[in-house]
Design a protein that fits this description.
Structural class: alpha+beta
Number of strands: 38
Oligomer: single chain
Length: 759
Amino acid sequence: MSNRMNRTPRSALGAGVFLLATTLANAAVTDYAKPLIGTAEHGHVFPGATVPFGMVQLSPDTRDGSADDAYQDGSAGYHYSDTSIMGFSHNHLTGTGIGDLGNILLMPTVGELKLVAGKQPGQGYRARFSHEQEEARPGYYRVFLPDYKINVELTATARVGVHRYTFPEAADAHIILDLWHGIGRGSRLRPTDSAITLENDHTVSGFRRSAGWGGDKIYYFVLELSRPFDAAGLTSDHQPVDGKESHGKNLQAHFDFKTKAGERIIARVALSTVSVEGARKNLQAEVSNWDFDAIAAAARAQWEQALGSIQVQSPDQKFLETFYTAFYHVFLAPTLLSDVDGQVRGPDTKAHQVKGFDYYSEFSLWDTFRAEHPLLTLIQPGRVNDMVATMLAHYTFFGQKALPVWVESGKENWCMIGNHSIPVIVDAYLKGFRKWDAAEALADMVATTDGTRAQMPEYRTNGYIASRRGTEAVSKTIEYAYDDACIALFAKALGQDELAGRYAKRAENWQHVFDPSTGFFRGKTTEGAWVTPFNPNAIVTDSYTEANAWQSYFVPHDVPGLIQKLGGDDKFAARLDEVFDSKEAIVNFSEDVVGLIGMYAHGNEPCHHYAYLYNYAGQPWKTQARIRQVCRTLYNNTTAGMCGNDDCGQMSAWYVFSALGFYPADPCGGVYIIGSPLGSQAAITLDPKYYKGAKFTVVARDNSAQNMYIQSATLNDQPFTRTWLTHDQIVAGGTLVLQMGPMPNRSWGAAPADRPGNL
């Protein structure tokens, strides 16, 4: 599996290797972002049009999950290996391992009217395409459909998708609206209810309801066409419907045209989770004209501003494309869910009015608490308070005394483990984001961790969760302990010393599942004995979540304590070396454990902090080498440029941080561990509304593939020997200069006082 993941497939060659026509000197940063990167193999990203954090992700669907063998790699609706398109739908997940959404699909056709997509071109309205006639860039997507001789262009605003179809001369041109289509598996793929209303000769509205991932969800829409249709029709269960309204589970509509050669028809589609009128308000507020090029230019301008917040310099064009595409993917989630008037459908399926903040969804928190959310505190501070306010509102609306775990379309799907909205909220508070009720947040955290979900009572009573069938007990124990450590920090900051002490004590529970005789975290029985037999190479769901024992060293809040448990600095570093250098095979292999370097699995999140842990043991040169190894072997600028699921931006955020030269190995509290930057210079432009500094710049002198090791450093012209930075140092602005060289400097950053564990 790891060999297959790390090779470059044929599909990633030729059209999959992107070259720029512009020079490094005059290119805009958006020219380097290539949305097709990661659409092959198992990146699970979509190439379509959206704006940063937009509700609408308008993208082609090449598969929908109806074939089980194609389900997971089609979770975003598109896979680079496919050769036909079934249409263009308006919302998609990015980089997830489970599929959903794909709501409100449109497909332009010419010829015989067909209202079923079909498995192959010719069987229905599905059409062939080639990558040579496909283009994707931030805020814009284009593809030519040779079966119909139609050129399709897509762009978007935050809540509206805009299509431009260029038709040939035809007496039988059509635009098909299919509400049967969705993305998912089994019954979750199809709608549970839907409706279409022909309001007039160019306006259509309705809704699509589905069970999907997380349960019942609904998307309302308003569709406007730039010219009246010549005829139209509705079908339900493939039977014509008289009149202007149709209601049921299997609905299609067709809008028929007589077109001239080169005639363009534009479709504007607005979404809302609340109502048709909500969608109409969104459309009226965001798209007031039919100028597709102006809308696409505005989307590009948003992307240029967002991506321009980090300016990276390098003579290596492939690196720049890899970096800015990763940075692009950071902005695809979380996504806006509230309407322009502040209405939103909450986790209780009811409509709510929120005031003073935008409400977000697509919180893949088991993944994104690690790097995605800490990165947003630097490059999107204006959204941080809103995301925290969303989490607190979710708790209130939900009525189940639980902060978000994994929220999709506003619904809690309970996927993955831990309570990792907690570190996101605490990290925001400690970094000064406080436009929400901190006392309420602390109370919500306490209630969440006092809950009954996922063996939490057992964890509280015994200090660990016993391993038994499917409990993932070790992983839950150590991740609950981390969340407890974050609550302790928060309570202390709020002056709640007794509460802080109680949670700080609970944060030590990781020690209950650490076996000093083997040096691994491992499962215990209810009686407290170690589970036998024990094979650290084996993925055992009784004890671990998408990992084995090698991949389960997770104590970000007490790395010095973990080092001590493993026998000191040298033994700790040696164990990390074993992880990366292992030649042994994983037992009970899982498709989630990919992107392998030895036992290190970068294609899944539990290992993401590993390479940075050498700094804690006084061996930062090993961190520097490992970072380069991961970046060199597991990321590139081809369509197969991701070694695993992007998971709502976490894989990409790891790369962005690592390319800059530092990473939040402990995601809560604002300490960044220094690694080995990839470019010659990187500058973060800081938002003056939130931070005093104008820029924070990392300069890597004499940097190259060979010169990966830090020889010396200065911060604001003063000698700097620490192997970590604080958030306050970065947002104050300034310059970190790293002198790079080909050989390790084993003295720089090695002293105990310079290690991140000694704060």
